[in-house]
Structure formats: C-alpha cells, structure tokens
Write a structure and sequence with these properties.
Layout lengths: L3 H50 L6 H17 L1 H8 L1 H22 L4 H17 L1 H9 L9 H22 L6
Helix pairs in contact: 1-2, 1-4, 4-5, 4-6, 5-6, 5-7
C-alpha cells in the first residue's frame, strides 16, 4: 500500500458519490420536501394558535414556540434543505479527491513502507467512516451510522497531520 490503492479507491468512490447524488439524493429530496410541506401546514396552524393564545403577553412559552417555528421555517426553505441534504454527496466527492491527492503524495514520498501503509489506511478509513456513514444515515435512513462519523473525522485529520510530517521527512531534495 504505497498510495496506489488510495488513487484507485478515490476514482471509484468519486464515481459512486457522483452517481449517488442525482440517483438517490434527488428522489429522496422530493419525498423530504413533500413531508416538510405537510409538516409546514401543521406548524402554520401551531404558529397561528400561539399568536392567538399569547397576544399582548411576554409569556416565555410564546418565545419558545416562535423559536421552534423559526427554526423549522429556516429548514423548510428549499435552498436550506438542499444544503442539508447535499452534505453526504459533497463530503463523499471531497474525500474521494482527498484520497486521490493523498495517493499521489504517498507515491512520491521517500518514507518507510509501514508509514506509507499507515497513511494510506488512515485516508481510506476516513472516507468510509465519514462520508460513507453520512450516506448510510442521511440517504438510506440508517441513523445508527452517524455514531461512527467521528472515527472518520479523526482519521482524516490524523492523516492530514501525519502526511504533513511525512512530507517534511520524505520529500526528496533536488541536488543544486
């Protein structure tokens, strides 16, 4: 594992995440938008009731109710919904490209093979456990997967820092 696997994985994962965006995410958005529209009608009735119940008072329940309605209104906005739903897609694409870049860097570094292997595995684990788990949770509804995203975040950040260290050690100086 000298970086080649990261490049191969990166291109395949990029194709997969690029495909999953329009194929799975867009239909999922349609269902979500319908559900949000249905919920919006209920929230509008609740908001109307709050306004009628607490006219002219400074009741804390009114403030809490209005805050809840405001949060929902923000999320319901189609522009904001697409930002929320696009997270797995964008992170998957980014982490695929990160694996390609890491693979290219690993191929060029003069460092011990075990260190290259560690870095390679770190970036692979990072992509699978971050954007992969975001896909499982967000797109496929497997909410338990969100518990593992922290593993991916730690792996990616560790990989970036360790690759910086490896670059200091392993970039060959040209003879001047």
């Amino acid at each position: 594992m000298n970086g080649k696997i990261n490049i191969v994985f990166g291109f395949i994962y990029l194709a997969l995440t690029a495909l999953l965006g329009p194929v799975l995410l867009v239909p999922h958005l349609g269902a979500s938008i319908k559900a949000i529209g249905d919920t919006a009608q209920v929230v509008s009735k609740v908001q109307e009731g709050l306004e009628n119940d607490f006219k002219g008072t400074d009741n804390p329940n009114k403030v809490i109710g209005q805050a809840a309605v405001s949060i929902f209104t923000y999320v319901r906005d189609a522009k904001n919904l697409s930002l929320l739903a696009g997270g797995p897609h964008a992170h998957g694409n980014l982490e695929a490209l990160l694996n390609i870049a890491a693979g290219l860097v690993l191929l060029s570094l003069a460092i011990p093979a075990n260190f290259k292997k560690l870095l390679s595995i770190t970036f692979l684990v990072g992509a699978v456990f971050h954007s992969g788990m975001l896909y499982l949770g967000g797109v496929f509804g497997m909410i338990w997967a969100y518990n593992f995203t922290i593993v991916g975040v730690i792996a990616i950040l560790s990989g970036l820092v360790l690759t910086g260290v490896a670059s200091i050690i392993g970039i060959k100086q040209s003879a001047s």
